Amino acid sequence: xxxxxxxxxxxxxxxxxxxxxxxxxxxxxxxxxxxxxxxxxxxxxxxxxxxxxxxxxxxxxxxxxxxxxxxxxx
Length: 74
What we know:
Layout: H1 2-27, H2 31-73
Helix pairs in contact: 1-2
């Protein structure tokens, strides 16, 4: 359950940052572009946030396995 909450928070955080960056860049062009780019930025940010948590879990599992191997060999 904690893993799902952490993933949702990460996804929301990156989506908000992506939306703000997209809105800024799109706002330099026009109002319509600002809303479109905000939506695209949020989509990209949510994708990055989800992948980041997945990668962090993978690295943590790899470290655990490496730690167990080194203690077994001693």
